[in-house]
Amino acid sequence: MNNQSIQAGLAATAQASDVVMNEILFNPKPEGVDFIELYNKSNHIIDCSELLVSNSLQLGSTSYKITQQPLLLFPGNYIVCTENKNALLKQYLVKNPEQVIECSTLPSMPDDAGIIILSNQQGVAIDSLKYSAKWHFPLLHDVEGVSLERIQFKGNTNDASNWHSAAST
Measured over all CA atoms, what is the biggest interatomic distance in the chain, rounded to whole angstroms? Predict the structure, then answer.
């Protein structure tokens, strides 16, 4: 007998703080790509095809769907969004490549500072991050290819002390 299982369930609409940005790379190495890692901290299954990322929620601003196809993000799970999955997998050791999804477009992520907003299709902000390259560990000589990683899921997304430079691998 083969003991394989598959997760299934009904997705709920993501609300504020259900899904948070857990890691971002906004200054990739040459031939590298930006990425955003999301974590579902809620008790609900979230359909990633109903999540959008942007630099603003103002009327007329452009938002990009995480994915066009239904993709369930279960409680306690992660997903990484990037414009080029193969480039990301070539530069970093990724334990679960199936959790990396290729987005057709991500919003602009400037190297010095920027804003990323995760919202649902109704325009409700789920998480919002105003990041700065100044949040990196000050003794790092080169932050190219080094992502910022969240320290605590429950901590404030925009608190610089809740982020640290991730290992370059």
Answer: 56
